[in-house]
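Task card 7
Instruction: Convert sequence to structure tokens.
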Amino acid sequence: MWIYNLGLVLYVWAIALASPWHRKAKLWIDGRKGLFRRMKESIDPSARIIWIHAASLGEFEQGRPLIEKIRKEHPEYKILLTFFSPSGYEIRKNYDQADYIFYLPIDTPGKARRFLDIAHPEIVIFVKYEFWINLLTELRRRSIRSYIVSAIFRRNSIFFRPYGGYWRMALESFDTIFVQNNDSKKLLAELGFDNVVVAGDTRFDRVAEIAAAAKKIDLIERFKGGTRLLIAGSTWGPDEDLLIRLINDNPSVKFIVAPHEMDESRINRLLAETLGGAVRYTQCTAETSFDGKQLLVLDTVGILSSAYGYAEWGYIGGGFGVGIHNTLEAATFGLPIAFGPNYEKFKEARDLVTLGAATPIHSYEELKTWFTPLRDDEHLLQQCSRIAKDYTTAHQGATNIVLHTVFGKPEQVLRSDRSFRTPFPTIPVSGFALFRTYSDRTDK
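Output:
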């Protein structure tokens, strides 16, 4: 345990040292300054609180269907939303479906106690990841109903390591563990957990909501005209290397490319190397003519998920790097999709590949081999489209399963009696003097 806590100290110090030169590190530090004071000034001590924690923006999108349904169906509760990462907090700090939005304090024993004293939640929901041992310890000691949703467990994770005892005990803080698949349930059963429900992934509910509320985008509608369209979302350099060749080899098809990062050199390369003509979304107006323009570079944020609704095919970026981005936003519109080879850790991508609605590619030749039949064979295109759409539809419903358990009758809530197999060890106060340094000053 002392290694865990020392690691937290070193982590905070490292971020503090980097903050003068690294924007995200600075946001991480500055966002936690005066945290407890701001919480005390904002949170009504008499309110009934449901606390939902998302590590970052992706986890927020998974938790969003839960938040909005709780807001609608249980107005007696105030919703406290926390983020660990600036990439979540800074984008959603003004989200109007939560009553209080803050960064999560660093997970020391003292801060965990202080956070819960101020937040006083009745119910806690963690989204997918983030097993903070001191917070979970304190939640268990206070008998606060706690859940984790859309979780995935793998054999190589820390819970199944010889040194993972504290993390295994931390899992006992959850009344119910909602997992995405049966493999996760079987793994947890090996550790003796019987409070596991296979609910699926709340992201399917979220993308269904996105599709149902998709925006009409006049500019994209005019750009597409009467042609067919491929949209490539969240692309990186290696993806764009292949896409430029595909664009130039298919002059009868129109393309939209949405880079993951708005890097000017990459955008300019796309514009310069597209032989059929290209234009930037942010430089278009209602009077812009798209004659002689084959590529639209989506150099803005917030409309990609709606833009997929105009396409016949999709390409998802990131597969030549650390991993692909969101496939479900495209699949929910019934798009056959392709992506790079690094997709194995994403269950929905594996499922779509198995079903034939998605194809991993390693080279331009493989990208061309995937695209050409779908371009030329309407029956094949419709078949793959139907498979993708049916897959996303069949996996909806996780939100209702979770909320039925959380707000069901007491006997429906697994482990509601808070009886646990293994007591948490008492964490000694001595040895935490280090936490009275910089890490303490950030969120007084």
